[in-house]
Amino acid sequence: MAKSDLRARPMFHHQRDSIEAHLTIVFAALAVTRHLTDTTGYSIKRIITTLRPVRDVMIRVRGQHVMAETPLDGTAADIIAKLHASTGH
Question: Cα angle vertex 13, ends 11, 24, to 5°?
């Protein structure tokens, strides 16, 4: 995995709190990335590219709620199924 896989940009902080907050976010992102890759068996680049177009939205029209979901198939369905299986849902 590389920074380019996550589209990370350089950050420049000068205050200790900002530096610590940034490092916390970076390590959290790395932990989530590791979990995703270990659980699914796919690279983070493939996960991101596959799931980027997936959207769910709830629209309220005249008091009615309508849910619109991107249909999952192929790799996207496999990734989501493996993540659900790992959480017991």
Answer: 75
- 69 vs 57: CA distance, rounded Å: 7
Give 12-51 pLDDT, tens digit per residue: 778 888 888 888 988 899 999 999 999 999 999 999 999 9
29 φ, ψ (degrees, to nearest 5) = -65, -40
pTM of the model as a whole: 0.70
Q: How many domains does the chain have?
A: 1
User: Both tokens of residue 35?
Assistant: 């979990």
Q: Which residue has the tokens 């350089």?
A: 10
Q: Look up residue 6 and give its amino acid.
A: L
Domain holding 38, by residue range, is 16-87
Sign of CA dihedral 43, 44, 49, 54: positive
SS3 state at 52 = coil
Asked if residue 6 belongs to a domain, the reply is no
Phi, psi of 66, deg, nearest 5: -120, 130
